Amino acid sequence: MFINYPHYLIPKLCGAMSFLFNPMFIYLLLSDKKLHLGSYRHLLVSFSIFNMLSSFYDWLVPMGVHDHRYAFVIFVSEGIFSNFSQLGQLALSIRCGFITVTYAILHVHFIYRYLVLNRSMLIQKYFMPYGLILTFVYCFLHMMLWTAVCEFFFYGDLERKTYIYDSFKKLYNLKSFDFNMVIALYWEGSNEAVIRSWIGVVVVSVSSTYSMGLFFVLGHKIMKNLKAHVNISVKTLRLQQQLFKALTVQTLIPICVSLMPCMAVWFGPVFLLDFRAIYLAATIAASVFPCIDPVAIIIFLPCLRKRLYLTNPSGISSTTAPPNSSFKIT
């Protein structure tokens, strides 16, 4: 299915940039000798790998968004899973689950920064490998939550596909029955379909609201600790401030390109509001975060940023720094 050129090209371009920027970021992290990030380095590398996995899955299961009266629809717009099948339906549900993993990743970022500033022994004693394993489990559970919601509450069954059939046929000249879809139907359906839809949207809304609350609470605590800067050297404090600025930008990006469009998609049909332009932008915006995430950190960490243009062809830095210019975080 061809929707428009931006929908077709931008996610693919973002995916290509993700596979360019994330390996570059991983290389800068692993080869850096001055920026001692401790266990945080492992987190950043792991999250960059996830970014590439997310970009690959976005290419494998590209999404489209449609609405009709009291229903919103997310469907596979092209590729090997575009034709209806149980496997394709599950692939779409998992693709929706990838969205919330972004929130889970940022949760871990905030929690780690907070524990480091409070000099928690949990980081030094248990993070490797237990903390990293727990991080993977936490992200996986977040993904499974949204995947389960799509499978059990938003499943595109015959009733829901029939409800949106005419509008889908009119817009795309294709039959809704032929596509893998997740559909929320708020009114004008059977009691079972309506109740399931409301339960599903409440679950994903509470999950997203909890994420935003955690960001603001921990962000406020981190800012207070940075202002107090008790028992922290000037250089370490500067590094912590740079990392927090990067984290702030990393948080604002998914709020703008993921959470806000999702809220419009979820609740627009409740009030018969047609946000078609936002719906189209939402599917495009979902592909942006994996390629921007590493860039935000590089921009706000001068030690990494400078290495992009202070290296000669042999790969050796063209400037030198005294040993005491290195930063240590943990």
From TrEMBL:
<dbReference type="InterPro" id="IPR019423">
    <property type="entry name" value="7TM_GPCR_serpentine_rcpt_Srj"/>
</dbReference>
<keyword id="KW-1133">Transmembrane helix</keyword>
<keyword id="KW-0472">Membrane</keyword>
<protein>
    <submittedName>
        <fullName>Uncharacterized protein</fullName>
    </submittedName>
</protein>
<feature type="transmembrane region" description="Helical">
    <location>
        <begin position="6"/>
        <end position="30"/>
    </location>
</feature>
<feature type="transmembrane region" description="Helical">
    <location>
        <begin position="127"/>
        <end position="149"/>
    </location>
</feature>
<feature type="transmembrane region" description="Helical">
    <location>
        <begin position="42"/>
        <end position="60"/>
    </location>
</feature>
<feature type="transmembrane region" description="Helical">
    <location>
        <begin position="243"/>
        <end position="266"/>
    </location>
</feature>
<feature type="transmembrane region" description="Helical">
    <location>
        <begin position="92"/>
        <end position="115"/>
    </location>
</feature>
<dbReference type="Pfam" id="PF10319">
    <property type="entry name" value="7TM_GPCR_Srj"/>
</dbReference>
<feature type="transmembrane region" description="Helical">
    <location>
        <begin position="195"/>
        <end position="218"/>
    </location>
</feature>
<feature type="transmembrane region" description="Helical">
    <location>
        <begin position="278"/>
        <end position="301"/>
    </location>
</feature>
<keyword id="KW-0812">Transmembrane</keyword>
